[in-house]
Write a structure and sequence with these properties.
Shape: globular
Largest sheet: 7 strands, mixed
CATH superfamily of the largest domain: Type I PLP-dependent aspartate aminotransferase-like (Major domain)
Radius of gyration: 21 Å
Helix content: 25-40%
Strand order of the largest sheet: 4-12-11-10-7-5-6
Strand content: 15-25%
Distance between the termini: 40 Å
CATH architecture of the largest domain: 3-Layer(aba) Sandwich
Structural class: alpha/beta
């Protein structure tokens, strides 16, 4: 058998903090490595496999579309794209009426930054401390963590950061050249920090008063993860633009920027070779159909409550706080999370960090209660 780790180390630029596992197969909430070991996946590709790994509907749709038409330039119309757009807007917030389709979340953020500048004729943006919006130059400029930014400055000028859920500090940062405010409803990478409804409603009102565009980043929270189709439903507000990606197409690379009628973009001002290709759109149709047919938002809500109630019954001496909304799980520890993540890996459970002290879990929403029980049992051993 080939040494896949050695081949990767030889040829790939080493920008990722690797775990010593070669994953080769997945189904539902389980994955397998090249040695035949089976794992419960509590990461889902960082909230990508919401409908489960190798979802039958998604696999069938991709296979059928691949045999029909894989790519189509955006200078032509396409039947699969049209059907996907209709499907996407059937579940989207009703004030959002147009989309720019991308290949990733960071591309959706880049489009939002460009469209905000184009429509407001202003140049500055406000984002939140601990927020994460991507790693390309514009998206990185809106991302707070200094380790991601170091070595790439100067980034796009005009970005400032304020504490999350602190309206007074945000309002102080606004000036006459503020084009947009970019916020996650729940900060994923930042530690599963849940946005307060009152805060977001005040931000929305401020944007209305100051002609500022509100950009809501639902790249990690979207598509049933939080117990709603989109986390903005908890906040009682409307976004001017909303970025989507990760689980939009059942694991196939895809993203989208949804826009309200406030946003107008002239021809040739932006574009994408692969954005909205027929293969991605076919996967997206199948993924959204599966979410609707199986009411995945209800599953996420019920399973999240089950997980939290069972876990909190146990004394966990290493835990400072548990934050859960749907199946977006953050366990803040009293010490660093990395040793716990590696210990869970030894127990055949995949998990994620969120900052230095938060253990993050984002399982496929189709995960069974039996698997959740197994994870809880092992967490109690590891965290007690």
């Amino acid at each position: 058998m080939k040494d896949y780790k050695a081949i990767t180390q030889q040829y790939e630029i080493d920008v990722y903090p690797r775990r010593d596992v070669v994953l080769v197969r997945g189904k539902g909430a389980r994955v397998w490595d090249d040695q035949g070991n089976e794992y419960i996946d509590m990461a889902a590709g960082i909230s990508v496999a919401n409908v489960g790994h190798s979802n039958d509907k998604v696999v069938e749709a991709i296979s059928k579309q691949a045999a029909t038409l894989i790519t189509c330039p955006n200078t032509f119309y396409n039947d699969t794209k049209a059907i996907f757009l209709e499907k996407l807007f059937s579940i989207a917030p009703k004030n959002l009426t147009k989309a720019f389709l991308t290949n990733s979340g960071t591309e959706a953020i880049e489009a939002a930054i460009k469209f905000a500048r184009l429509n407001t004729k202003k140049t500055k943006f406000i984002a939140a401390m601990k927020g994460f919006h991507g790693r390309t130059m514009g998206a990185l400029s809106a991302t707070y963590k200094k380790e991601y930014r170091e070595g790439f400055e100067p980034l796009v000028p005009g970005f400032s950061f304020v504490p999350f859920n602190n309206f007074e500090k945000l309002a102080e940062a606004v000036d006459d050249d503020t084009a947009g405010i970019i916020l996650e409803p729940i900060q994923g990478e930042g530690g599963i920090n849940i946005g307060q409804k009152e805060y977001f409603q005040k931000v929305r009102q401020l944007c209305n008063e100051k002609n500022i565009l509100l950009i809501i980043d639902e790249i990690q929270t979207g598509f049933c993860r939080t117990g709603k189709m989109f986390a903005i439903e908890y906040l009682g507000i409307e976004a001017d633009m909303m970025t989507l990606a990760k689980s939009i197409a059942g694991g196939f690379p895809m993203g989208a920027l949804l826009c309200s009628d406030k946003i107008a973009v002239e021809k040739s001002k932006h574009g994408s070779t692969f954005g909205g290709n027929p293969l991605a759109c076919a996967a997206g149709i199948a993924a959204i159909d599966f979410m609707l047919e199986n009411k995945l938002w209800e599953q996420a809500e019920a399973k999240g409550k089950y997980f939290k109630e069972k876990l909190e019954k146990h004394p966990l001496s290493k835990v400072r706080e548990i934050r859960i909304i749907g199946l977006m799980i953050g366990i803040e520890l009293k010490d660093k999370s990395q040793p716990v993540i590696l210990e869970l890996l030894n127990h055949k459970i995949l998990s994620l960090p969120a900052g230095t002290t938060v253990l993050r879990m984002l399982p496929p929403l189709v995960i069974s209660y039996e698997d959740l029980d197994t994870v809880i049992e092992i967490l109690v051993k590891v965290l007690a």
